[in-house]
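Handout, section B. The chain below has 333 residues.
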Amino acid sequence: MNPGLTRRVVLCGLAATLLPTVGFAQDAGGTVVVYTPSPAQAVEAATDSLRQLEPNISLSTITGGSGQLLRRLEAEAAAPQADLFWSSSENTLGGFREMFEPYRSTQLDAIPEALHHPEDLWTATFSHVVVAMVNTDQLGDIPAPTKWEDFLDPAWKGKLAIADPNNSSTAYTILWGIDQLMGPEALEKLAQNVTVNSSASSILRGVAQGEFVAGLTFEANAYAYVAGGQSEISLVYPEEGTFASTEFMALVKGAPNPELAQRTMDAILSKETQVALLESTFRRPSRSDIVVGDHADLPAIEDIKVFPTDETEAAAGRDAFLARWQGYLQSAN
């Protein structure tokens, strides 16, 4: 990997460079409660950066699956407990839009206009690419997969895993994309082979430890194991095309600390924090002023065949799709 600037170097220059131009490190402070499905490494990187950018603000994070946390926001709507939700795809957030307050971040100009929400209900944080995470030591007689169609072979039954799309926006993005790319018949065949686990993190651990041969996940999640030295882990970008999904952060409607939450959002979207998150968690920044290859050994997005999907359509069709997927699983069992 070409690590570029280390996170330590990045953070050391914050006070001298960024603070005067974007208005961070204001005097008023307090605690911002963030509901997040982000992994511990991402939370740590964001927290470290926030200490430099906004030393008077501390984060209190509640973690869990995106669907689980969004339903919690819904249950708390009369008396919100969270200030920020960080982060999930639009196909999942769209079903909970009433939970969020519009906010136009000071960092928005660095984010491509195509990723802007027309009402500023949420702001793009990362762009993810879907991959198959494969443990090559566990393949045995199964040919190494190169495309989605390979996973429809009965030889993969019980050897392939995915998270529950009811709780995981990652899983929902993957399954919706496969349905759009290959059609319902392919999705039904996939349901006959795949094992559904309760959380996205359990898929990663299962593949890394050899419980599963492969798992369907986001690139950043899988690459963390490659960067950690597990040479048996490979990332497959399916030949038919894979799916890119943007994750978004949102200000909770009726947040207890809205001004602090806005400042926290701006800090997390800053170039310095986005670089730190790329180097520590391999998430592709939403900002257009960061070259991914300067900081992580990942392919340029231009070199990946991406099949476009409509996030608005995915959000609108979520309930019907999940019911259909559940029916496929019940038939398979």
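Note. The two ends are 43 Å apart (CA to CA). Compare this with the example in section A.
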